[in-house]
Amino acid sequence: MAFTVNPDKFRYPAEFAAGVKGKRVLISGAGKDGGLGQSFALAAGLNGAESVAVHFHSSYDDGLDLVDYLRSQGVNAFPLQADVTNMGDLWASRSYVIEKMGGIPNLVICNSGLTEKGYSFGRSLREIEGESMAMRRARVRQAFINNLNETRLVLDTKIDGFMAMTHLWSGEAVYANEPIQFVYISSRQAIDPGVSVPGYAIANWAVLQLPKVLQVNLGRSAELVSAYSVLYPFVRTGMTNEYAENPKVFGRWQPRMLETFEAAEGFMQLLAQPKEVTNQGMFEAIVEPLPERGERAVKFTWKQVKFAIEEELTPFSAQHPLEFA
């Protein structure tokens, strides 16, 4: 059975359940065992959600086991297998989700567990002593293709996929005149990018713009739709587990990686806040050491990120403006 987490760790205080209690919740990228999406599905299902749609594309073994567990706990959970970058596939899921939930989802959590394996963006591969020029060209070409294919998949899933999910379910909510909330899972890589994962950093930056772009396009209907983004530091998942004891990877942000149940508890605290507090916000998870409590003890808080855009006329343009009649 591909279900290895301890579900009891995902049962949280009653005050944290307010964000999911009685709601129809759809979580994308929720199939992978030990993943962040799985933790959101468990947190929603075990804390009072009316329905939970567990979306996955290829992680069907883990995803179906998660659905089975939630159902064993009395949760109306169901699998949703779809490629969010395939618009026909995504559209075809619409009637299925509505039928299973008995209505449209009123909380959509856009999450993706994809990233690149890692490469030096803008740099070629190192030379190998004794390697022929023909062999080097072939090796560099193949690495170029493989790396950018990984990047394209990350960009397509995080940008196109999140936009498509938003367009689909916001459209349904506005048509039905029902409120809906979107939460976009981003990363601190968006505002403090590291090396080796350029597509991941760029995709997560784009995610931060979605709430504002959605609000502008909705016009008067914006009062029905609330949206915000969440920037996580490193969380120990199947994707990051090999680096979980390597502070060179996570040390600039945190004393240790968060466990998924810790990340989910912080998320539930944020979800429980009224939409007037969270709508259009960008919220960064901060993890700090608590040495007086023990070596692994940490303090988890939320900071709101705000961008201050400044525009200045360049000196050369001020001195020599172009004039057109």
Automatic annotation (TrEMBL):
Gene3D superfamilies: NAD(P)-binding Rossmann-like Domain
Superkingdom field: Bacteria
Entry-linked Pfam families: adh_short
Protein name as catalogued: SDR family NAD(P)-dependent oxidoreductase
Origin species: Tepidiforma flava
